[in-house]
Amino acid sequence: MSADLPPALRAALEGLAGRFGGRDLAAAxxxxxxxxxxxxxSRLPSPVDLAAYAVARMPATYAACAAALAEAAERTAxxxxxxxxxxxxxxxxxxxxxxxxxxxxxxxLRDAHAGMVSLGxxxxxxxxxxxxxxxxxxxxxxxxLPSADLVVASYALNELQPAEVAGAARALHAAAGQLLVLxxxxxxxxxxxxxxxxxxxxxDGARLAAPCPTERPCPVAPPDWCHFSARxxxxxxxxxxxxxxxxxxxxxxxxxxxxxxxxxxxxxxxRILRPPRADKAGTTFALCTPAGAVSRTVPSRDRxxxxxxxxxxxxxxxxxxxxxxx
Length: 326
Fold this sequence. Notes:
It is built from ten helices and twelve strands. It has helices at 7-17, 22-37, 47-75, 92-100, 114-124, 129-132, 165-175, 188-203, 236-242, 303-309; strands at residues 82-86, 106-111, 135-138, 148-154, 176-185, 207-210, 228-233, 248-259, 271-272, 277-278, 282-289, 292-299. The longest helix has 29 residues, at 47-75. Keywords: Iron, Iron-sulfur, Metal-binding, Methyltransferase, Transferase, Transit peptide. One of its GO terms (cellular component) is small ribosomal subunit. Pfam families: Rsm22.
């Protein structure tokens, strides 16, 4: 699944950027980036702040959600008809869900920020029916969530207090008729949110489809953390808002895909935890496996296995054969 924005969303974001001065967007984008890196919530008090958030952050969030939802589609036997996007922001995860699951025909999007809901509705007005006809709601994550086949919460649980994460994850799971997808920043704090949600969901009877190859206790321990990276092309407005010349950006994220009991899943045999290290002797992969975290080197002279693994990278499934212990 591509990290490129759908054409309708790309056009909507370029049009949104054109309503504001470039310097104003750049200044608002810098404030948002500082808040994001400091782990603060998105305050976004004015229209230019909302526009800057959409232009500067929506492409990156889309790339992360697209990667997570593509894994959800590949690793589960699901064809959801309805999606609930909680903490939806401008609707990014629902745009990505439409690409991953063409079966979707109904969407409910909820966010506590009324301005964000209005912005999302505006961006979706000329988009596909799933977005343009969606039910956009202003409201908080709570026990009154409507049910849907697919429930998504992206970059949302990290804005809760740590003690609230487990309960929120259980509420999201209760609302999910088939599967739940969580996406958070690829920081130690973001992974801590995913780890807390993972423990709560397993205790709640959920099954894991991705990225974990096992439902045993997570083998990743501090100071390490489980996260991945998605590369996205930058829009013209995106580069202007960030004052950037490089035509691409890498978004680091953590994610979890859980399903209701009874739904078939095919987890990866192993998952590549960080960029592989290659030299003349071969390529070394750091892997998460059902037996724990291991290191596996594929020698260059082993042409058959080297051919099968040479295109694999950080975050990919490692399904070639059961990894050997270090």
